[in-house]
Design a protein that fits this description.
two-stranded antiparallel sheet; alpha+beta; about 15% strand; rod-shaped
């Protein structure tokens, strides 16, 4: 970042202010220009450093540093590390203990509320109807298949036709 335009602006402002004081004030302003340039550059660097400190606090764990190259400051941005993909984070999380088949088949039922977007609800209802299941039974099977590794064992189903009525045969393992 080139500070020269800002320092030149300060020199012009000093010269304009000195015009009001006559020839002696003009001469004094010219003699003070060089030392004021150093003070102005140092002040601007302090302001930039303070501003980048605030930016760094907001950017943490990344940072922004101000480095002096010659007479001009340079900004060095260190971005925060990229977040790990969600997939990797899920792989590192320990899976909860899976109950044994005997524990899982105790017959206890629990109720949960599930809110689905309308388009998924319609698709779930269609898929359940196509397989002759209730939406609840279809969801139980889908969750079971998902958690048990993709096999269809353990899915609820309908038994053979017994006397013209479809008989529910229960859970199959």
């Amino acid at each position: 970042m080139d500070l020269t335009p800002y320092v030149d602006h300060l020199r012009r402002e000093l010269a304009v202010s000195a015009e009001a004081g006559g020839d002696e004030a003009r001469a004094l302003a010219e003699r003070l220009s060089a030392p004021l340039e150093s003070a102005a550059r140092l002040t601007l660097l302090n302001v930039l450093s303070a501003a980048m400190g605030e930016v760094t606090r907001e950017l943490a764990p990344g940072s922004v540093d101000v480095r002096l190259r010659g007479l001009d400051p340079e900004f060095v941005v260190t971005p925060p590390p990229a977040p790990e993909p969600v997939r990797e984070a899920q792989e590192t999380v320990a899976a909860p203990a899976v109950p044994s088949a005997a524990d899982a088949d105790d017959g206890t039922m629990v109720r949960i509320n599930l809110r689905l977007p309308a388009h998924l609800k319609g698709r779930a209802e269609s898929a359940a109807a196509a397989e002759g299941l209730s939406v609840n039974a279809w969801l139980v099977r889908a969750v079971s298949v998902s958690l048990d590794g993709g096999g269809r064992a353990g899915a609820p189903g309908r038994g053979k036709d017994t006397g013209g009525r479809g008989g529910f045969t229960g859970w199959v393992r």
